[in-house]
Design brief:
The protein has 301 residues and is α/β, with parallel strands linked by helices. It has 15 helices and seven strands. The model has no long low-confidence stretch (mean pLDDT 90).
Length: 301
């Protein structure tokens, strides 16, 4: 029996009780920038909240399709957002467990006949009740190789995405152009993915903010001169090959911490204090090969 149409409905209470607010606030707090992504995640959360409220008054619209595609360059936060999405879906009751299982082609596709199906089904078994995140999903499809078994994995995935979509959400991720080709070559997969979210590259200012956030979590800080050096480093590194946004920044900071440790070790006969241990200096950043490569280019070599 449906609830009376005049029954007052409290969407805000549902929002609070579902713990979705915590996940959305964490998304804002932990990820710099990505405004279009955060907006789309909020829209999906709003849709699911309203859908859940509709059900309380007997309005059935069928289970929403929740399979997604995340496109963008490496290091733009796709895996992190997938984890937050899993928490949101769990908070709203669309995922029994709310966990994330992240895999690549190698976890799904076998190397000989009869090997792919059990590998794929084992991954699906682990992911049930949560979210399956398939990075670089286009590598599943290799039509140029007749002996490739990726198509078998795709067919199993398609079947589960359709028949068990109330117990598993699949997120396919990768470069935008390659994902578009993948979907055009696999219309069955494209028809099952309802939400396409594009992750933009970070600006230089956003990358500086990300670096500061990473260092803060590790209880490090930049000296004033190091802040200038880091901004210069980022401007140079973004123009070089294989730049991976936040991932490249994390690697650069790891190397800066190594150089700081080596510098402090050389001073082991001197008295050190907490400030010394926390502070990254300009020399720890400027020792990077990025600066040397820039100087070489400037000299025309």
């Amino acid at each position: 029996m449906s609830a009376p149409e005049s029954l007052p409905l409290d969407l805000d209470a549902l929002y609070r009780d579902s713990h979705v607010r915590e996940s959305l606030e964490a998304l804002d707090r932990e990820l710099v920038g990505l405004v279009p992504v955060k907006t789309r995640v909020r829209e999906i959360a709003s849709l699911l909240l309203v859908d859940k409220l509709r059900r309380t008054v007997g309005l059935e619209a069928g289970a929403p399709s929740l399979h997604m595609s995340f496109t963008g360059n490496p290091g733009t936060g796709k895996t992190t957002v997938a984890m937050k999405m899993a928490a949101i879906l769990h908070g709203l009751g669309y995922c029994r467990k709310g966990h994330l299982v992240a895999v690549t082609r190698d976890d799904l596709v076998g190397q000989y006949i009869g090997h792919t199906a059990p590998k794929t089904r084992e991954v699906l078994k682990r992911a049930m009740g949560g979210v399956l995140f398939i990075d670089e999903a286009y590598y599943l499809y290799r039509p140029e190789n007749e002996r490739d078994y990726g198509q078998e994995a795709i067919e199993i995935l398609l079947q589960v995405m359709e028949n068990q979509r109330d117990d598993l959400v699949v997120i396919l991720a990768g470069y935008k152009d390659r994902m578009e080709r993948f979907f055009s070559s696999n219309p069955g997969m494209a028809s099952r993915v309802a939400h396409h979210i594009e992750f933009p590259d970070y600006s230089e200012q956003e990358l500086v903010a990300i670096a500061r956030l990473m260092l803060e979590k590790l209880q490090y800080r930049l000296s004033d001169a190091a802040s200038v050096a880091l901004a210069e480093y980022i401007a140079l590194r973004r123009g070089q090959p294989h730049f991976a946004n936040a991932r490249s920044i994390r690697n650069a900071l790891d190397r800066a911490r190594l150089r700081q440790a080596g510098r402090l070790f050389e001073r082991r006969g001197e008295a050190l204090n907490r400030e010394n241990l926390m502070t990254i200096e300009a020399e720890d950043i400027r020792a990077s090969r990025v600066f040397a490569a820039s100087q070489t280019q400037d000299q025309g070599e």
